[in-house]
Every structure is written in C-alpha cells, then in structure tokens.
Amino acid sequence: MAGTDLQLVRNRRYWLTRLLVIAGALACGIALQAPVTRYLESLQALAATDPAQARAELAAIFRFPMLGLFAATGALGVHLFAASRRARQLGIFPPPGRLFAGSTRRFEGDAARRVARFLIAISAVLVVASLAGAFVSWQIAEQLIACRAR
Q: Which residue range is the domain that position 63 belongs to?
C-alpha cells in the first residue's frame, strides 16, 4: 500500500479564510469575556440574597442557550449525514449541490464511498452527542430549579 502524498495547501484564500475564522472566534471570546464575568458576578451576588432566583436564572442559561447550541450541532450532523449518504450513492464526495467549507478536495469512486461512510459514522455520533447534551442540559436546569438546599 503506497503512502498518501500530503502536500501543504498553497492557496492564499484557503489560509486567509481559516485565519479570519480563528480571528473572529478569538475576537468574540475576548469581547464576551467582560460581560459574562459581570453577569456571573451579579448571579453570585443574587445567590447570596435570593438563592432560588439565582438558580432559576442559571437554569434558564442551561435551558435556552444550551439547547440552541445543541440544536445547531445536531442540525450540522443531520446535514452532514444527508450529504454523506448522497455522496455514497453517487460515488462523488462532496456531492453536487451540497454546502461544504472552502476548497474541499474532491474524491471519486471507492475513495468517495470510504470518506462518505466515515462521515456518516461521525455525523451519527454528532447527532447522538447533541441529543445527549440537550438532554443533560435540560436535566441540569430541572435539578437547579428543584433544589431547595441553601
């Protein structure tokens, strides 16, 4: 079996896109750090005076934003699953008409089917993990609300 020849991508747009995504993620993290810190400090102060209200606010964080996050990752998994099934049927990856990131390498024939089978498995794991994460987040919120201890 011959080794795969991996070469560095020399496309400027490829690297610029990835650097912009990383820079955007860092900028969002830095921008959100102060407001999140202030909110958590106010939540801790509220917990000292009204623990039930503080738990209710924390439960709302676990319910709605976390469910949104897990819904988005689950939708990504479903999209990837559907695209990979189509790619496996056609023997071309990525399949025509499907949205994939950047300059994706094209596979045909048996190689496309192998990639598609691998991504079907990964997408199934992503969907199951998203469902589990949503369930756990909801259970955490329920326990926070049900908790009566000081």
A: 50-150
